[in-house]
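ENTRY TYPE: paired fold submission
RECORD: A
CONTENT: sequence, then structure tokens
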Amino acid sequence: MSLYEKTLRPALFRLGGDPETVHVRTLGALAKLSRRTPVALAPVKARFFRGDPVVVAGIRFANRVGLAAGMDKDGVALDGWPALGFGFAEIGTVTAKPQPGNDKPRLFRLPASGAIINRMGFNNAGAQALADRLEKRRRSVVPLGISIGKSKVTPLADATQDYLTSLRLLQRYADYVAINVSSPNTPGLRSLAGKAELNELVSALVEESTTPLFVKVAPDLTNVAIGELIGVCLAHRVAGIIATNTTIDRAAL
């Protein structure tokens, strides 16, 4: 059992208890670490970072283990992630409009299953705020992915323009952009993974994009739906697929 499991994690939960409180405090600590100079981070990086480079879609990832979207939605701890050993970091999911996310409580631990139920709902400060933050900082030392999703208040009929707003604001800062049509926590979002809807969305984003695009898929699709999704991605030559987002299946718990 690691030092984190024996000491740090129990201490965090004694301080807060609520999983989201622990998440926020941990992210805050990492944000402070991230604001330190590279020299200050060097001992941490020396302890955790391991190189195993791999090239995907023309992007050279420092190693094969990266940070998935959802942990650092607003990109506040970007220098901390490579210091902790991650070979790339994906921030977001960010939306065109700032939003608070779903009502609390919305994050639940299932210790016996080693699992978490996430109902956060794209809580983030918005694409413009993230663009402003990224404009003021140096380029990430590992590849940076940005996951974009639909604002909750935006009607599904206007989803394409909503995604385009985020793409235009953020793509200059990203090594790749992830198109999130697979979160279960925004009403109707997964319908955008349907063949016709995805074709409209991906077509518009590919035409506008100057950076590799990946489509993030749900693990709950039928085989037929997966085939249709792959067909759309191939037709528009997206860079790849991110498999997978959060499941809504509780059978294994």
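RECORD: B
CONTENT: sequence, then structure tokens
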Amino acid sequence: MLFRDRQDAGWQLATALRDYRQPLVLGLPRGGVPVAFEVAQALGGELDVLVVRKLGVPWQPELAMGAIASNGICILNHPLIARLRVSQERLNAIIADETRELKRRELAYRGHRPLPRITGRSVIVVDDGLATGATMQAAVEALREDAPGELVVAVPVAAADSLAEIATLADRVVCLHAPHAFMSVGQWYQTFGQTSDEEVIALLARASSASGDTAEP
């Protein structure tokens, strides 16, 4: 095990990001938000969420064949889809289902409040780990449309091949560990329970209260 829990991972990750001051820190819900909370607190940054959804293989939902983000970005692993013979009809149904869930989560987490300003800012995107990297790829591509000053991907642990791919998309990648024998993100945590919507909402409220709502809009 590399981390006790997501809080511990966030503390360790913040140490590796200590050269940033008051960045915009975006957690990928749900599991990335507890990690991002610790990073934002340590760096004096603004915390928010960027909702992305994995497109799981129908009979193996944990295996990503793509991902979607809130501004219509859709990333597809076409070779995997072809190899597994996932029909277009089934793919379309999964995209529709995940789009509905994405919209539900956006409303639950942020109401009708828009994302903070991205353009020209240092933006750190945080998740609890990278397995296939599909959701992070969708997140990075979505954020690129708003021209951040610097786009940093920060994760405690990642599969080496996924990390290499993300490194071609972000301005900087910070990863504490990239083990060769990588089966899942959860294997590197002593405690890796599901993060609930309620926990995400509570962490966002705590971060907003701690900043006194003085963060840049």
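NOTES ON RECORD B: The chain has seven helices and eight strands. The helical segments are 6-16, 32-43, 78-84, 88-110, 134-144, 160-167, 197-211.
STATUS: closed
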